[in-house]
## 1
Amino acid sequence: MKNLAGKVFKLIRNSKQVSLRQVAGNCISAGQLSRFERNESHLTVDAFLNSLQRMNVSLEEFQYLYNIYHQINDVRLSQELSEAYVSKNIVKLNKMLACSQKLMDEASDPLELQTYTLNCIVIKAIMTYCNSDTAVTEHEITYLMEYLFSVEEWGRYELWIFTNAAGVLSIETLDVFSSEMLKRTQLYYSNSNNRRKIHQMLLNVINLSISRERNDIAIRYITHLDKLNISDTDMYEKLLLKYNKAYYSYSNGNKEALNIMKQCAKFIDFIDCENLYLRLKDEIMTLES
């Protein structure tokens, strides 16, 4: 693969207006750093991290820029996938599926084949949410489940898979994997991005459980999120938790709870989250009809 790391490193260094010699310090030579930027050699992990630290750049910031350059070839990091889903753009989704299937056919080793196969399954799952004729087969669901069970600690990729494929899983399977998610994300839970993804996934599970009349599952995850005491800075998640609590209450016979759901949806509309607002609005209208 093309050495994007060196290219991104040079971009950051130039933006900081520091020389190769200043970044290198006493850890490595300026020549070594220059060759790394030109894709002529590699740095040790310690030398790389030390160089970032000397520029006052975190590894997370570096990865963010790296991902921007890399995402064109990586469906996991592409905004196009979520945009195609929101706009129900089947044509674009079909193109993305064809591209991923081509990568799968051209995979050079088992690990690449596994990744591209999982990516294809996720794209097909998203297409089913758009009322496409494409369906995820039982074999593909089994393949996805076996992969998730094989990973001891779920990182961003596993959360991405589970979040996007949740809608094609049975409620019982969804419950099992939600429990597994909580067990298998402890290592990365302190990462703010992963933590928010976990919260959002649980909120999705709660909503799906209520809509499929499995309030016993919904209340378990509502209780779990309550115990986590979601931070005030994560207002989006706090608001959806309040909405789902009201939804749970309504499904248990409290008709007044519908007013709280409407207030939450109104606030979502106020902060211009149009797609989420439309989804909540449709859900409320269905309950009223």
## 2
Amino acid sequence: MYPDYLFEYPNRQTLFPFYMKKKSYQAVAPHRHDFIELSYVSAGSGQEIINGSEHRMIPGTFVLLLPFHIHSFRSIPGESLTLYTCNFPLDLLTEGKEAELGLAHLLTVQEDGSPPYVMVPKSDRSRICHLLDEALSEFEADIPYKHLVLKGKLLEALALFLRYRSLHAADDPAVPPSGISAKAKLVTSIVQYMYQQYMEPLSLAQVARHFHITPAYLSDLFHKQYGIHFVDFLHELRVRHACSLLLSSDMPIAEVWVEAGFGSYPSFCRIFHKVKGMGARDYRDSQHQKRLFP
């Protein structure tokens, strides 16, 4: 069974596409998304699996999930996990001054195999909870300039995540070594490369050559690690970009398919309909109607 692929979250199609909640869970099934998710455990305990690597979830666990991460988690029997969760788009970290300040490094594959989670020191946990409580109150309020305040708090949370990761001790018993295999690191590098190149002509053979492996090995490795075929993942990336162009601009559809990296208009029409269940024009019209009459 393929993991769910989440494209949307509340507020995704607004001028400030940031969403936040605090919620308790017993279990969440395997899934991935094309946006970033920052979460923090405030209560409870359990286990999370990220790209096949399992780690404990206890108060103080800070997790940053990127689009190529597949994850699931569960609480221990009789308990719930309470998490703060923030969702926001990739471009927050890859454009503007934030990228220059170092946040773009969150998108790079760490040479030391750093896992996508850290354990916040006990002395700092009240600070993180206070920061996230303030952000949640701001998010839920209907007050002027809240978007500016929210962005500042989100950037502070991300900067603190980076700080804790840089100070992360390999022998911390609360955060055991990630145990990520060489194969998992390779396929993660491949996905990162695809995110950087998907708007250009890209094929299984070309990517295999870039990483000095055979196409058959790449195809098998990709499917075993992510539960989806290479070409389907590439199509999803391109369709998502096409959707963004359709919703955020008046670009003609005849130009959208080129900008999104498709090789021809017929292939764009066929793949878009397969992924979204409707044609590009119908998708644009339906989404505009939702904005006008939510």
